[in-house]
Each structure stands twice: as structure tokens, then as C-alpha cells.
């Protein structure tokens, strides 16, 4: 009887494990399929793509033609500059704010943390028109050009990504024992010195995870980049990819090739830092 009961428990566990594996497999396939289809589409001719058939032979010419159809390198350069500077600016501000909220109690500190997270519940589209009008008014009244400039997009992206970055880093800093800072203070460090010399070096995992999040969000953003930039001097990759459709003709084959090229640096960065990204995000979720 006991043996029968034990076997039934093992069978239930095995069924649960099989069901979990099936669900995970479906989720993985669902995640990989769009990427695989994007890559296959980038190797198809325009005619084959329109009919939904994989052409033979494989058409690598799309990857050469995509650079000639539009100045894709200019969009790549703009994205790297804007996303890179946005990541640095956002991290510089979010690190200090997140540490202050996590470690120091001040009037309204609890409400401040909740308010920071609440700002992410408002759709970004609602800010588009007011932000654009504000930039135009600043330009008309003070002569400071913000629309169609690097600083305009960097300021916009930083403003959007700072709140959530503070929330992520706040949770991560909250897991660091306060005794570490106290020991540094005893050794002669100021509060700022303790943060720079002790806290930040052991917080690199969380900071890198937050930096990856910021960079990826800025890299994929289209709506504000489309409205706040007007020519190739400042337009980013998502805007450039959009021009393959409806600019002169609908070249979905070139758009897919450009999408693959755009995805490669992001994938390289993510896989190179995935351990730090995952451990940083999970550490920040423990307490906060």
C-alpha cells in the first residue's frame, strides 16, 4: 500500500514536470519564432516575401542593398550616441536617488518611492503633445533649439527612464547591509566616500542590469524619436527602419535585413552580460 502511494506521488510529480516542460517549450518557441521569421524574411526577395514563400537561392543581397537604399550607418551612429549618453545620464542620477531612497529616511520618503513607480502607469503617449509644445515654446522664447537635436531626445529619454531606474536600484541597494557603510564611516569615509568606495563596487551587478534596461528601452523607442526628430542628422534606427516602408516603396525585405542588423549588437550585449542582468534584477526584487 505504501509502495503504491509512493509511486502515485512520483507519477504526479512526473506529470507536473512534463506539463511544465511543455508550457516552457511553447513559450520558448513563441519567443524565438518571430526572430527566426525575421531572419528568414531578410533572406527572401521582395516577390517571395509578398507571396510568403522562401526563395531559392538565399538572397544575401538584401544586407548589401539595405546600406545603399538609405544611409543606415547615420541612423546607427545616432542611436549609439543617444542611447549611450541616455544610459550614462540616467544611471548617474538614478544611482544617487535610488541609494538615498533606500538608505535614508526623510519626510515623504515612503510616498516618494510609491510616486516614482506610479509615474510608470501613465501611458507615454499622453506626454507627447505637451512635451513637443513645451520644446517649441522654449525655442521660440529663449532661442534654445531642442527639437531635432541630440540633447532633446536625451533629455526626453532620461526623464522617462529615471523613475523606473530609481525603483530598480532602490530595491537593490536595500539588500546591502547598512553595516558596510557604517564600517566605512568608522574607517574615515564620508557618506559620499562610503558610497563611491564601498557601496558602488559591490553594486555593479544591479547597476549593469539597470543600464541594460535603459539602453534597450532607448534603442527600441520609436514614437518620440519620430516626432522630435526631423532629418537624418538626429533620427535613430527605429525611424530609419520605418523609412523602408512608405518612403519610396514598400521594401519589407530590406526592413527585415535592417532589423536583423539592428538586433545583433543588442543580442551580443545581452548575452555577454546576461548573468549580471538576471542576478541584478532578481537581487533588486528581493527587498524594496
Automatic annotation (TrEMBL):
Q: Which SUPFAM superfamilies match?
A: MetI-like
Indicate how the chain sits in the lipid bilayer. Answer: Multi-pass membrane protein
| Keyword vocabulary terms for this entry | Cell membrane, Membrane, Transmembrane, Transmembrane helix, Transport
Q: Which Pfam families does the record match to this protein? A: BPD_transp_1
**In which compartments does the protein localize?**
Cell membrane
Q: Which Gene3D superfamilies does the record cross-reference, listed alphabetically?
A: MetI-like
Q: Domain ABC transmembrane type-1: where?
A: 76-273
Question: Which protein family is it in?
Answer: Belongs to the binding-protein-dependent transport system permease family.
Q: What is this protein called?
A: Carbohydrate ABC transporter permease
Q: Which taxonomic lineage does the organism of this UniProt entry have? A: Bacteria, Bacillati, Bacillota, Clostridia, Eubacteriales
Q: Give the encoding gene's name.
A: sugB
